[in-house]
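Subject: design request, 417 residues
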């Protein structure tokens, strides 16, 4: 092939997404992929970078979400046996399943995740935001990531589920350990270490949640776990194991991705002060602002699929059994879909980003994530209108699938009185 990536022929190079320069700004590489090699073999998996191709593959029944076994097969046999409990839980996750299993689980629980249910929690979300911001009052420099964006979703999700806020620190640790499983640590040694830690945290979380679920069976409350216990679709209910796995998925997925979204939004608005000013002047822009953050600086950069049979895409043949990475971060900057894609526009409409996926696997928790992030970001930029970055450069977390900063030191300045 004659096209090049990073100056090297496509046929002889791969892209190292652990490169700090790419992690700091992956968008030039994405643009080059869309232009030169929209369906690109990166050594172990295909990279799909164009919006239309990704949207099409998301609804193609030949693209399977059941990718857990493929991940485990590359591990040594003794490690596979050791990590069997983790494998069982991951295989039972709705996100990692295909129809009819996925369809059944989604039908049972979808009412509990409705936009109406999420809307009813806005007042409590605002109260939590105010509590966290009150703690920052009177200080010059704070870590907006560690002291606000990261703990806040844990509180809101814990409240939604109906578990104590004083367990939030454990939830954050459990979630962090488990979300790392979905990325691609560099060496086999690193991968095994991450999976062992993820299993340890999963087993702790599982034991805790089994106790909570049993309590709700005896005494239902007005919370999401009680709703899951009582959820029914044409006589079908979740088993205890399915409920545990569902709640683990909510805590792991919702906690991390929403924290990353809030952090990315604060950083983006501080880098675009005119956008922050527009949001303060017109709070009604909070919805379109957060949709633009979801597009412009997506906390979820990629998701994976496995081809169950050969598929022709963009002039390339994806073979049966091949791993495929769908680059949401690239699709959301695709020139063919978004006018001026590298411009951050708080009023952009329409904004059909793919951050919450597309088709049958569209994110069930999207309504709650939108509510939490809209309220959280509007609250901090309004409370501290003079807030600014301590340093222009920030350190991004390592990883391929998710995008977030490690820390976000900010000068608060004077609050709005």
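Subject: RE: design request

Done. Sequence follows.
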């Amino acid at each position: 092939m004659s096209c090049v990536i990073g100056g090297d022929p496509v046929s002889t190079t791969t892209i190292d997404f652990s490169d700090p320069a790419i992690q700091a700004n992956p968008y030039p590489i994405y643009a080059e992929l869309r232009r030169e090699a929209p369906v690109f073999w990166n050594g172990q998996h295909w990279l799909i970078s164009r919006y239309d191709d990704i949207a099409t593959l998301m609804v193609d029944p030949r693209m399977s979400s059941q990718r857990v076994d493929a991940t485990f097969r590359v591990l040594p046999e003794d490690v596979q046996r050791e990590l069997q409990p983790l494998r069982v839980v991951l295989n039972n996750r709705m996100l990692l399943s295909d129809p009819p299993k996925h369809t059944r689980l989604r039908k049972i629980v979808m009412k509990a995740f409705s936009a109406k249910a999420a809307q009813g929690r806005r007042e409590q979300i605002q109260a939590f935001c105010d509590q966290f911001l009150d703690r920052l009052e009177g200080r010059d420099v704070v870590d907006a990531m560690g002291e606000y964006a990261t703990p806040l979703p844990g509180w809101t999700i814990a409240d939604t589920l109906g578990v104590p806020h004083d367990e939030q620190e454990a939830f954050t640790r459990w979630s962090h350990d488990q979300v790392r499983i979905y990325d691609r640590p560099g060496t086999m040694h690193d991968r095994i270490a991450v999976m062992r830690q993820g299993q340890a945290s999963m087993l702790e979380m599982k034991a805790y949640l089994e106790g909570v679920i049993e309590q709700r069976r005896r005494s239902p409350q007005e919370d999401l776990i009680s709703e899951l216990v009582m959820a029914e679709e044409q006589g079908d209910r979740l088993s205890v194991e399915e409920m545990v796995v569902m709640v683990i998925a909510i805590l792991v997925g919702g906690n991390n991705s929403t924290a990353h979204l809030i952090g990315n939004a604060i950083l983006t608005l501080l880098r675009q002060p005119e956008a922050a000013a527009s949001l303060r002047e017109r709070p009604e822009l909070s919805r379109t602002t957060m949709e633009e953050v979801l597009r412009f600086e997506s906390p979820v950069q990629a998701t994976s699929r496995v081809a169950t049979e050969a598929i022709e895409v963009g002039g390339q043949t994806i073979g049966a059994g091949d791993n495929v990475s769908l680059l949401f971060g690239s699709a959301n900057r695709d020139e063919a879909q978004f006018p001026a894609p590298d411009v951050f526009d708080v009023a952009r409409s329409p904004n059909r980003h793919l951050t919450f996926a597309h088709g049958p696997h569209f994110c069930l928790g999207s309504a709650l994530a939108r509510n939490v992030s809209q309220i959280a970001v509007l609250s901090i930029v309004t409370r501290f209108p003079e807030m600014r970055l301590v340093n222009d450069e920030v350190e991004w977390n390592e990883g391929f699938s998710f995008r977030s900063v490690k820390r976000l030191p900010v000068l608060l300045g004077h609050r709005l009185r």
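The first strand starts at residue 4 and ends at 5.
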